[in-house]
## 1
Amino acid sequence: MRNLILTHGFWAIAMVTAFFVGMGWQRSATADRQKSEIQNQASRGQFTLSAPSETGMTRTTSNRTDSGESGIIPKLIQGTSFIEMGIEGLAAMSLKDPNQLKRRLAFNHLLSQMTSENAVQIREGLITAGVSNRDSEWRDFNYAWGTIAGEAAFSGSLTMEKVDLYSVISGWASADPTNAIAFLDQLPEKLAHGPGNKLKTDRLDLEKGIVAGLADRNRDEATKYVSKLLA
């Protein structure tokens, strides 16, 4: 038993350490990439940075002579009536539209309309549209579902063949950590689920999800949770 606890504790420490290190690396890489893009654009003469305005805001001005370009994105957005589209239409657009801006806007609108009552319908719409387990839309949907529905989202996922329990419990922990952790404490070390209980999920993977959700909420809470696992 003691060896099991030590092993469990080792992986818990590694889990939270890797999570925070990865988060810092991702932010650093994003900042470096944005800086490089700005420098490349400036070298091509695409824009220049003017002096700060009277309000203290730095303004970006384009050297392009065609003033009509500034209206391309608003026209793109206005030309698409997201409000009139149903869940299936939004789900399909968020995954299949050739324009990445439209895909992003459609998915954001889909999540903004999500409730605990229509979440399953949105889920089915994404699956029908061909969402992959590796798609960010699939992870974000399950995270949002866990955030708004908590236990109902997790328990509902247990009966389904296509699931992302990690993201569901992460979202749940980010909004309601007390009940998410209490629920997890009642689960076996290896959780059988899905049709015919053919799917298996290790409890340690779900604990990683709890840590991720807690870190989105408060890093101190994530650290305390890992410390509790080691106690």
## 2
Amino acid sequence: MSGGEDRLEELRGLVRDHDRRYYRDASPIISDREYDLIKREMEDLEAELDPLGLFKAEDSPDLIGFPVPAVGDDRLEEFVSHRHLVPMLSLDNTYDQKEFFDFDQRLRKLFDRSELPYVVEPKIDGVAVSITYEGGILKTAVTRGNGVEGDVITQNLMHVDSLPHDLTSFELPEILEIRGEIYMNHEEFVRLNELRERDGLPLYANPRNLAAGTVKLLDPKEAATRKLEIVLYGMGACIPESHFPSQSAFHEAIRKWSLPTVEFLRSASSANEAWQAILELDELRHGYGYPTDGAVIKLDPIEMQRQAGATAKAPRWAIAYKFESERQETVLEDIVLQVGRTGTVTPVACLRPVQLAGTTVSRASLHNADEIARKDIRVGDFVVVEKAGEIIPQVVEVVAAKRQTDSTPYLFPSSCPVCARGLEREDGEAAWRCPNPECPEQVKGRLKYFASRGCMDIDHLGEAVIEQLVDLGKAKRISDLYTLGKEDFLALDGFAEKSAENLFNSIASSKNKGLARLLCA
């Protein structure tokens, strides 16, 4: 094979791998921007080496191999598949203003018009879903899947408050297939991560990954404990055929039907007006309660959409303009390891404080040892930091040009930073774990979880008290709490007779909390 063919084979392998991580595993390891650059290079090479799309691996296995599917596939074997009435495509996207105007120019040439009418909507960073109503009753909720058929997730969305189950009070088409996005708002994401932190578990990376994992939970009751929301923005099938003259009229109709639609919707009579709406959205989006990572620009008249048609991947009448995440450069001053209650060891970057998206950032997640090695992150490096999903700070890349000449690679420790027990990692897992159940940090994590509001709800037994009890050797396991006397609490900083008595009584009364609480702990 030639150098170009070798590179195309490599890029196709990368795209397949990242598609699997993003769509099926809900755990991508690169940013959307990095993925888009890889896929753009692959598509450019495909156009150069195989402009007619003629070559398949079965025709010439040594040439360029199997093409990557046009739309990523999120289907899992544990779910029932359901065929979309109308194929559910993806969107072409760009980060470049010129490419947006090139998109407009292609359409103006197609329609022989000097200007075209558009609508501009937010691009929500969630999980694409197709919702079908029959006779006004919610029948199915299906993921995009491979664009032709997806996984049925109806039961996992039955507790989404904003999704009506019954629209029979309105005059509706017999069958209505609507496209939208499942997302998790910032407040719920923070709440769930606070629970993870309390329990000593690794934090969720961003709202999109958490929403994607939630809709694919096998237990709908567990999914119901995580608050998901939905916004609807596009038409799939409509039987009898839709009479909507435009995209903006479609939004008016679904709003009238009490279906959740976008907060921001701007009509534009030209690409220039659409561009101003994009800039306006970029200013406003941080005030929304959900992650918005771009703008979607669509031809407004439905008849023009039909005439423009689609490729195998995306409609020709729409494009997504992706906003740049705010990034800042700073110095990574140290890497510290946190040990959770289950023994998971999580690396955290200690940063020279920097302002990012309205807050001061001094720490960032490094996820695991493999991520540190993949990005070659070293103490003392200048690094670029961004907020994943506008919430969690993460190190995006190292500024290699500024690296000190005496810099050395970071070696992930082989022993627990707290108890010095050798770390272990099971095959197929990314996380290293401390296997010592008496590791002080694990003990603290288990006690904090046991005393928390969601478990035994023990008043006065807060984090600072638990830290002292473990550090003084008074509590090495949960059962030790029930052997402590008032004199043990009087030995703690800040305790007097009354506060020691209150804590003693709270622990004693927790014995009567019931089996359900105990099982939770």
